[in-house]
Amino acid sequence: MDLSHHTVAVTGASRGIGQAVVRALLERGARVVAGARDVSALEALPHPNLTAVSLDVTDPAAARAFGARAAELGASALINNAGVGVFKPTEEITLEDYRRVMDTNVLGTLLVTQALLPHFQARRDASVINVTSDVSDRTFAGGALYTASKFAQRALTRALAYEGQAYGLRVTEIRPGMVDTYFADTQQGEAHKHGWLRAEDIAQAVVYVLSQPPHLRVDELLLHPVQQEVTF
Ligand SMILES: NC(=O)c1ccc[n+]([C@@H]2O[C@H](COP(=O)([O-])OP(=O)(O)OC[C@H]3O[C@@H](n4cnc5c(N)ncnc54)[C@H](OP(=O)(O)O)[C@@H]3O)[C@@H](O)[C@H]2O)c1
């Protein structure tokens, strides 16, 4: 699938799902504006179509600068992927945990989206893809903080879909189940992750969404490894 007509801004691009998305987009001819705090990981992926930008999504000035750079390069799509997870029983959640998870997953999505919206409103053909989670509408023991952030990200996604319809914005929620990445301070390839989704599977979903013809909007994709228990 040729995506050479796209310039895509990707957050959380230094490893895991974000880095796989960057690679898949570049392979299909897209230009990519990739943001993360660890820019060295992005600079190790030299490519003429890749612009690496230092980005902490929780920092309003950094989010604005990232959006401005992406707009200047003609961004046609934004992938809000940056995210962190902390899993603890409710009584153990600290204020620091709360701020880290909510600021990254919720405030970060809001700030980066806001930074690009004036440009997207002017274009009238842009796409926003938010990588949330299969737990953006259900929870579990130890999941209070993370799922609260993902429920909130889902709400941001859906409100934007309503608002964006007035200016041709296509908004998609991609909801992965278990993916083998570095998420929540783990390593890729740990034995217990055998059979989980690969970061490349989520990158393929992003490519699928961005490859659709102009009349088609993908509202949501829910992706699970076959071995994960069926839950809706
Ligand atoms: N892995 C799973 O099982 C799974 C399942 C469902 C949904 N997800 C979601 O998928 C997304 C990507 O996670 P992943 O699995 O790829 O995890 P990962 O391997 O830990 O990668 C997370 C990425 O987010 C970036 N990031 C974290 N805090 C950031 C900040 N303040 N500003 C900018 N970038 C930041 C990291 O880059 P820097 O540290 O360099 O900034 C990194 O590139 C997250 O939203 C996560 O909630 C993951």
Number of helical runs?
Answer: 6
Task: Please name the CATH architecture.
Answer: 3-Layer(aba) Sandwich
> How would you spell out the order of helices and strands?
EHEHEHEHEHEEEHE
* CATH-assigned fold name: Rossmann fold
Stretches with pLDDT under 50, minimum 5 residues: none
Mean pLDDT: 98
Radius of gyration: 17 Å
In helices, the fraction of residues equals 25-40%
Described by strand count, sense and barrel closure, the largest sheet is:
7 strands, parallel
What does this structure look like?
- The chain has 232 residues and is an alpha/beta fold.
- The protein has one domain: 3-Layer(aba) Sandwich (Rossmann fold), CATH 3.40.50.
- Helix content is 40%, strand content 17%.
- It contains 6 helices and 9 strands, in the order βαβαβαβαβαβββαβ.
- The protein has a 7-stranded parallel beta sheet with strand order 3-2-1-4-5-6-9, sandwiched between helices.
- Helix 1 crosses helix 6, helix 3 packs parallel to helix 4 and helix 4 packs parallel to helix 5.
- It is globular, with a radius of gyration of 17 Å.
- The model has no long low-confidence stretch (mean pLDDT 98).
- The structure holds NADP nicotinamide-adenine-dinucleotide phosphate.
- The site of NADP nicotinamide-adenine-dinucleotide phosphate (NAP) has 30 residues, from helix 1 and helix 4.
- The site of NADP nicotinamide-adenine-dinucleotide phosphate has 30 residues, from helix 1 and helix 4.
